[in-house]
Structure formats: structure tokens, C-alpha cells
Design a protein that fits this description.
By secondary structure, the protein is an alpha/beta fold. It has three domains: about 90 residues, Beta-grasp domain (Ubiquitin-like (UB roll), Roll); about 100 residues, Translation factors (Elongation Factor Tu (Ef-tu), domain 3), CATH 2.40.30; about 120 residues, Nucleotide-binding domain of ferredoxin-NADP reductase (FNR) module (Rossmann fold, 3-Layer(aba) Sandwich), CATH 3.40.50.80. The chain is about 20% helix and about 30% strand. The protein has seven helices and 19 strands. It has a six-stranded antiparallel β-sheet with strand order 11-10-13-8-9-12. A hairpin with a 4-residue loop joins strand 8 and strand 9. Helix 6 packs parallel to helix 7. The protein is globular. The two termini are about 30 Å apart. Bound molecules: flavin-adenine dinucleotide (FAD) and FE2/S2 (inorganic) cluster. FE2/S2 (inorganic) cluster binds next to loops. The site of flavin-adenine dinucleotide (FAD) has 24 residues, from strand 11, strand 12 and helix 3.
Length: about 350
């Protein structure tokens, strides 16, 4: 059997040393051994995994978002570790981050589909049962390993860890391969997961207030962190602003209203951007990021958690910065499209 060549990879200033196969991205090699390196999208769309190539040669996959990574970055010797494979031994300037989420190494998990619930015209909740409680941090995501669908699609967990089931909220896009797969899913079927991945999750600063901003299925990881937080009686003030187009695209409303009743420190504002004027909706209208700005007020000590489509995240992050929220106090989960 032919063996895949492997190279030495060293990270500075930590001095962490590992081996990276030539068919593995530098980022995946780090994640696989549980090194706490920065990343988010794993597909060249966010820039979180950028590092300086101190020495060595890499093969870069095309597909980086030019607004995030371009020839100016390359000229400075920077690379995106999620898009680069080693062609020699490598030394990177890449500082490790403080996070607990890297502690769980991704593995494959065979699950049984228990429920397929249509929550809105375009969003399904898929509940899978796992052979034992699968380790993940609330808000992390898993790849779905679906035969004939490459690359794997990524979906966030939508319930707390520690049970023997995982919920996912999946938006169906016209022509999307996962849509076809979901339409054929039924109780008793199988789904293989690979994970967990990602650093999204509530900080351990339980004395600090938090604002959560979600759009579309960006609600999923927020539901996961809230489910965990309320389960462990976390009493930090949390305000959730949830943006959907119309009333029939709002979901999880009953659970959220129950939490508002049972958890005094939790408040929730749904915001609709395209609800017909005469529909009788008496809640907030407009863009969730505009309503967020009105809501912010005194941002001293505030932490922000923003999940969903990249355009919404960019608008929220720039609004939060303008309002004085520190960059390090904003955590994001960008739901970018899988790239072939
Ligand atoms: C970290 C992370 C977590 C994610 N979590 C979730 C989640 O919990 N729930 C969820 O629904 N999605 C989530 N996503 C997004 C999801 O992985 C992608 O949307 C995926 O491409 C969907 O695959 P598909 O087979 O349905 O569509 P594809 O076959 O990939 O695409 C089909 C068509 O659908 C459209 N499309 C697909 N994805 C998007 C998108 N994200 N935005 C706009 N248009 C799109 C495009 O027009 C495309 O041509 C996450 C992504 C990341 C990176
Ligand atoms: S660009 Fe590499 S993780 Fe997002």
C-alpha cells in the first residue's frame, strides 16, 4: 500500500510540534491532535486561521474569499492554514488561543435518525441518537458524512451536550444536496457525523452580560449554548435578538417563550425583516442588526455572540465595534456555504 508523505509542522512561539500528511490541511492536522489554534469556517471565508509562513513550502487550494485573503496577504508571507497542504517541513508563526473547545478531538460517530421535524417551510430539525453521549462543547458543530455529498456539509449542534441525542437545524436550499438527503431521511435511518469542530460557545465569564444575535438557522448554536446555560443554572443576563424574514420562518418560539418565563435573566426579541405590513405582527420589524443597535445601551462588560449568514455577522460586528464592544468580546459563527 502506498503511504502518503508526511512533514514536520512546528508552531511558534509555543514550539508545538506535530506531523502533517500531505493530503491534510495544516489546520486539520492541528485540530486532529487537539491543539488550540484559531479557526472558524475552515473554508477560506473568515480569515481566523491566518498564520505567517516562517519557513517551508505549501500548496494552497483556490477558493479564499479575496476580501479576506488576497495577494497583499501572500506578499507578507501569510497563509490560510485551512486551505494549505504541506509540501515540505513547515514552521508557522501561529499563536495558540485560550479555549476549552480544542480539548475534544474530532472522531466519526455513527448515529440513528430519531426524528425529522419540519419547523418552517425551509428549516428542518433533525434529531439523531448516539450510541453514548457524544462529547462536544455547546455550540460546536459536526460535519455530516453523506454518501455522494462532497465536501462534507457542516451543521451546528442545537441542544446541550451530555444526552444521547443531538439536534440539528438544517435550512434547505433549492438544488442543495443536503435538501435531497433530508427529504429522504426518516426515523431509523443512519447518519455518520465527524466532529466536533469550532470554538463557538458561551465564555466562562458568567458574571458578564451577553447579547446573542442570530439569523436564520444561526439560532441552532445559540439554542445549544442556552440549553446548556439554563441546565447548569447560569444566571448571567442574556438577551437574544433573532432575525427571520417572516412570521412563518420564526421557529423554536415556544421553547424561547418558556425560557423567558422560567429564567428571569433571559429576554428575547424576534425581529422580522419582510413580514407583510398588514399581517397583524406587532413585534419588531426591520433588520435584526439595526434593532441590536437600539437595544445595546451601556456596553460595559458586554459579551456578544453572533451566528448566521456572513452578511449579517459583518453588519453586527461593525455595529458592536462602533458601540464600543471590544473585538475580543465578540464571538461569531459564520454559516458559509460548503465549497467543492
Ligand atoms: C461552522 C458552520 C456551521 C454551520 N451550521 C449550519 C446549521 O446549523 N444549519 C444550517 O442550515 N447551515 C449551517 N451551515 C451552512 C451549511 O453548512 C451550508 O449552507 C451547506 O453548504 C448547505 O449544504 P447544501 O447541500 O444544503 O447546499 P449546497 O449544495 O452546498 O448548495 C446549494 C445551493 O444552496 C445555496 N446555499 C447553500 N448554502 C448556503 C448558505 N449558507 N448561504 C446562502 N446560500 C447557500 C447556494 O445557492 C447553493 O448554490 C454551517 C456552516 C458552517 C461553516
Ligand atoms: S479562513 Fe480558515 S478558518 Fe476561516
Amino acid at each position: 500500500m502506498q503511504t502518503v508523505p508526511a512533514f514536520d509542522l512546528k508552531l511558534l512561539p509555543s514550539g508545538s510540534a506535530l506531523t502533517c500528511r500531505s493530503d491534510q490541511t495544516l489546520l486539520d492536522a492541528c485540530i486532529q491532535i487537539g491543539l488550540p489554534v484559531p479557526y472558524n469556517c475552515r473554508s477560506g471565508e473568515c480569515g481566523a486561521c491566518m498564520a505567517k509562513l516562517n519557513s517551508g513550502q505549501v500548496q494552497e487550494l483556490p477558493g479564499a474569499d479575496p476580501a479576506i485573503f488576497n495577494d497583499r496577504h501572500r506578499a507578507r508571507g501569510n497563509i490560510l492554514t485551512c486551505l494549505c497542504f504541506p509540501k515540505s517541513d513547515i514552521v508557522l508563526d501561529l499563536a495558540l488561543i485560550e479555549t476549552e473547545s480544542a480539548s475534544i478531538r474530532p472522531t466519526t460517530v455513527d448515529t440513528i435518525v430519531r426524528r425529522v421535524d419540519k419547523l418552517t417551510p425551509t428549516i428542518y430539525r433533525i434529531t439523531v441518537e448516539t450510541p453514548r453521549p457524544v462529547e462536544f462543547h455547546a455550540g460546536q458543530c459536526f460535519e455530516w458524512v453523506v454518501p455522494g455529498v462532497a465536501p462534507n456539509r457542516t451543521f451546528s449542534t442545537a441542544n446541550r451536550p451530555g444526552t444521547d441525542s443531538i439536534d440539528f437545524h438544517v435550512r434547505i436550499y433549492p438544488g442543495g444536496k443536503i435538501g435531497t438527503f433530508v427529504s429522504r431521511m426518516s426515523s431509523g435511518g443512519t447518519l455518520q457525523l465527524l466532529g466536533p469542530f469550532g470554538h463557538f460557545g458561551l465564555s466562562s465569564n458568567s458574571w458578564r452580560p451577553a447579547v446573542c444575535v442570530a439569523g436564520g438557522t444561526g439560532l441552532a448554536p445559540i439554542m445549544s449554548v442556552l440549553d446548556k446555560a439554563f441546565h447548569v443554572k447560569d444566571t448571567r443576563p442574556i438577551h437574544l435578538l433573532y432575525g427571520a424574514r417572516s412570521r412563518d420562518e420564526l421557529y423554536c418560539s415556544r421553547i424561547l417563550r418558556d425560557w423567558v418565563r422560567s429564567v428571569p435573566s433571559f429576554t428575547y426579541t424576534p425581529v422580522l425583516s419582510e413580514e407583510p405590513a398588514d399581517s397583524g405582527w406587532s413585534g419588531r420589524r426591520g433588520l435584526v442588526t439595526d434593532v441590536m443597535m437600539e437595544h445595546l445601551g451601556d456596553v460595559f462588560g458586554l459579551e456578544a455572540y453572533v451566528c448566521g449568514p456572513p452578511a449579517m455577522i459583518d453588519a453586527a460586528v461593525s455595529g458592536l465595534e462602533r458601540a464600543g464592544v471590544l473585538e475580543g468580546d465578540v464571538r461569531t459563527d459564520r454559516f458559509v456555504q460548503a465549497k467543492s
